């Protein structure tokens, strides 16, 4: 593999992260290992978003509607990616520019569901 050649197997998010970080930089071996793993996590996050789709809740084995467990996995992967990038001195991940996310929608629905009706005093 050449100096900054994109590692085999990365999808679009991972490739974009790799080229964005390595462009104009020389990385030592430990930094490359961290970056490759960050790129794989970025790809995994895209896969999770696609898999979750609009299914914010699922019915569990007891027949109860619960949050889709992939949402928790997405949150963990995102936190890991942010930690790796921070460790590499690459700063925070950019904020979403497309308005409310699926996660915001889930929080709104949970808030509406848990809202207690206010009783008027007689």
UniProtKB/TrEMBL annotation:
Spell out the protein name for this chain. Terminase small subunit
Q: Where is this region: Disordered?
A: 91-122
